[in-house]
Amino acid sequence: MTDVHTTHPAPGVLSRIFGTGQDGEGHEQVVLCHDRTSGLKAIIAVHSTALGPALGGTRFFPYGTEEEALQDALNLSRGMSYKNALAGLDLGGGKAVIIGDPDKDKNEAMLRAYGRFVESLRGRYITACDVGTYVQDMDVVARETSHVTGRSPEHGGAGDSSILTAFGVFQGMRASARARWGQPTLRGRRVGVSGVGKVGHYLVGHLVADGATVVVTDVSEAAVNRVRAAHPEVEVVADTAALLSSALDVYAPCALGGALTDDTVAVLGAAGTAVVCGAANNQLAHPGVEKDLADRGILYAPDYLVNSGGVIQVADEIEGFNFDRAKNKATKIFDTTLEIFTRAAADGIPPAVAADRLAEKRMREISALRSVLLPAARRS
Ligand SMILES: NC(=O)c1ccc[n+]([C@@H]2O[C@H](COP(=O)([O-])OP(=O)(O)OC[C@H]3O[C@@H](n4cnc5c(N)ncnc54)[C@H](O)[C@@H]3O)[C@@H](O)[C@H]2O)c1
């Protein structure tokens, strides 16, 4: 037997994408897509198919640099592996980005060209909506591929995913209340919601119905007015800084990522805020913030766990959408959040680390089932 020699060229972009091959961290597949006629430039990143086809939305965004676009695709697809694993879905993690301004550049030919690239992966990647793409866009993508979800109800889709996202965040917040105060309710608590867009405004509805005192802020006057019209009792403050320092029991970041920085966590700690639980993706601005939160006694409900109601909804569409079935699955976010808090306390680690470990455990254990050969089904 001859020795197998592997050539190791100097590390470059491939090492960045695929990792060293030793830490299990690298992406499985990254596809660069270019359609000369429509001008489509897209990146489809499949982080992991350990649990099944990689599901994740398509972000249409005017990235400043190509580097940023690639990094976003890599980060977001990795995040989807963890989110889908913890949500108990038989789906891996993927995400795509289309480089461009959705308001100026998006058109039918470009979306359909993108759909053909998705189809070319033969189901290894299933797409859906994300920032800059909407259910109507997925209806167009669906004219070229069957590997698309998040379509409109008229086309058999699940429609607006923010309804179950907000419901799931509310379940995570109820679990946080139970862990912190003994009862799974926000009644009598002061909850601050930053960002009352699609998810935030539904979340406010759940909180008001539960008896919470709700304070909101948003850079969009229209978004604030919409909430005030539906819930006149809601208090409005000028900006997120004012919200953070306003003696909240619970802070719910529901706008953009990176809401939890060294500075904001210090303000929350000084104001005596007990819980952070919101819809925004990638809330922790950098590694270490999760420990800072724990050290200050602030209970942090991991973002990708509590905001998984939306992906649960679009995943359900793959089977033929049933709202009650999807809602039942999203209800389980309550139990999983409690489980994460219990594991974190038992192991003396922040909840964000406990969530990562549980997701990794499921990916490891379920993907290992493939070692049990099923010859007749010809599944690998
Ligand atoms: N929609 C979903 O199903 C879903 C699922 C999972 C995660 N998320 C995440 O939840 C967050 C909200 O999503 P959405 O669908 O409601 O988006 P959205 O765009 O409808 O709402 C975001 C709101 O935040 C406001 N905002 C922006 N910057 C702000 C700032 N600095 N201060 C205060 N408000 C600000 C915007 O004006 C807008 O009203 C995002 O981070 C998104 O990635 C959404």
Automatic annotation (TrEMBL):
The active site is at residue 95. One of its GO terms (cellular component) is cytoplasm. NAD(+) binds at residues 195-200. It catalyses: L-valine + NAD(+) + H2O = 3-methyl-2-oxobutanoate + NH4(+) + NADH + H(+). Pathway: Amino-acid degradation; L-valine degradation. The keyword NAD applies. PANTHER family: LEUCINE DEHYDROGENASE (PTHR42722), VALINE DEHYDROGENASE (PTHR42722:SF1). Homodimer. Belongs to the Glu/Leu/Phe/Val dehydrogenases family. This is Valine dehydrogenase.
